[in-house]
User: Fold this.
Amino acid sequence: MELDAILTQRGWEKRPSFDLVYSWEDLFARGLGVPFLYRNRVVEALYRRLPGKPQVPVRRNCFLMEMEPHVEANVYNRKNIIPYWIDFFLRDSMLPALSRSYSRCPAVFVSSREVFEFLQSRQIDLPVYHLPLSLPDHCLNEDWGRKTYDLVMMGRPNEVLSGFFRQYVESHSCTYVYRRQEEGRFLYYDQDGNCLGNLDTHERYMDLMRRCRIGLYATPGMDAGAERTGGFSQVTPRFLEYLSAGCHVVLRYVRNADTDFYGLERFCPSIDTYEQFESRVDGCLRASVDRDLYRRYLAGHVTSARIRTLTQILGQI
Assistant:
């Protein structure tokens, strides 16, 4: 099967969390040599209200990146639409509805190896393929500049690592960045209370990350996050972003198919105690990043590598 377009919602969806999705779309469109086909929010809302669950008419063969699958009112359940699920937090009880919602699609791609193996084990009635998340090629930049801060936890915090982080900075002299929610916005501050802004673009987010020596990272299904994610705990792009920014990593995770696929153990064992955390941070502050290791590793996880994988799979459909 050959794709003719990338079906995108960039015409109306402007939340910062979609910046990375649009970067992937840009690279996929360029790599596949196809244009964008813009989704229409009003038309989609209208079709969802119509009886009989009709589909939005689309003539081209399209690749559609979705933050999460639609178990109800999927208006793009068509034989010429190939969806790509970025996040997946569904329970077993929802799988029959999921199968019905994508029954006409010739293939479905999932980003998580853990989810892929889960769906295979449940023998879901859909042709499912694994297409891992990636680092946009333009983020592969070894010009990291000056490291201003010792520690940072970007994005959604893990409460265990956050506790270790607070205990460490209270007893050690170091520079650090932390996130605080104020009036519905997430603002970043340094150890002196200076506000660094809300990092409302992916570029600003990466710029701050490049100024940090050590990044704290936990897979999303760890600890209290397990309830939100249904127990799934995939490796998110933030791990790759830390490496591309030249950061050492302090990690917390449960070993699964996704952590094995990305080889997290090559970079750091899962941190379970404060003593492990303290030892790891102290060691990272004394050491330099292994640039050769990072370079070789990231070369296999950039978006251009995923485009080659997608092309190979589509050639079999």
User: Anything to note?
Assistant: The mean pLDDT is 93.
